[in-house]
Amino acid sequence: MASSEGGYAKNAANLKDLVIRLKTLGNTYKPPQPAYEIKALEQLSKDADAASRAVSKVLPVYAKAVDEQELIFKPLGSLITKSFNYLKAATKNAAELQTAKTIADRLRGVSKNRKINDDGTTSAHQSSTSYDNKIENFKQYIDVLAASPVYKPAEKEIGIAAFQTLLESMEHNITAVALAKTPVDEVRKKRFEIFYGQPNGLIDIVSGVKNYIKAALDKSHPQYKHLMGLTFTRTSAKS
């Protein structure tokens, strides 16, 4: 996401530079399409800035919810390990223990379906580690513990009540993230169209301007090299 945000900022800044340099051409600049005219490019620049500001306004709320999500879910693996170790010490019921282990492994991201990363490390399949699935598996794990006649730890942090409170926090956070993400997605889509939509997005418009510059100016013109040197990059991600 960081590189994508940087791409938008760079394209917007270069458009401003492009307009400034085109103005120095005076009457020499007579583009064949209204979209390439100075006034149209200035409006496009304003629209691009407004679209980026709209994203900036809603992004902090979403980022805060995501950061809180990471903090809430982070201790889960350690708590599950402690809880399961207690159950292993307390029960002699092999079936109960196996059921708890299966769910505990899902919660800790232990999966038989492992992906080999480029650096040679392994990671669990995403389906076993997503936040939504963790919540569902955590519910099942709590039910297993609640049904056990021997699961009565003195350690409050791995007790049923503590787990239920943590589960409620997780569910509340999932909702908060979803609510915060909706407006972010909406403004990002609008921004994407302004910058990369075809055929009237910033990238396509600038490409047309550059084609005209190639036809209108000699390479020896003082502004030719500067205008051609302004880079505008396209992204396929609607973010």
Task: Please provide a written account of the structure.
This protein has 239 residues and is mainly alpha-helical. The chain folds into two domains: 2-72 and 184-229; 74-182, no CATH class. The protein contains eight helices and two strands. It has helices at residues 2-23, 38-73, 76-90, 94-107, 131-147, 160-196, 202-216, 224-229, and strands spanning 114-116, 122-124. Strands 1-2 form a two-stranded antiparallel sheet. Strand 1 and strand 2 form a beta hairpin. Helix 1 (2-23) runs antiparallel to helix 2 (38-73). Residues 116-128 have low confidence and may be disordered.
Q: DSSP helix count?
A: 8
Rg calc: 28 Å
Give the ordered list of helices and strands.
HHHHEEHHHH
How many domains?
A: 2
Report the biggest beta sheet as strand number plus sense, adding barrel if it closes: 2 strands, antiparallel
Structural class: mainly alpha
Strand order of the largest sheet: 1-2
Give helix % range: 55-70%
- Strand content is under 5%
Total number of beta strands: 2
Uncertain runs are 116-128
* Gap between N and C termini: 7 Å
Mean pLDDT: 90
Overall outline: rod-shaped
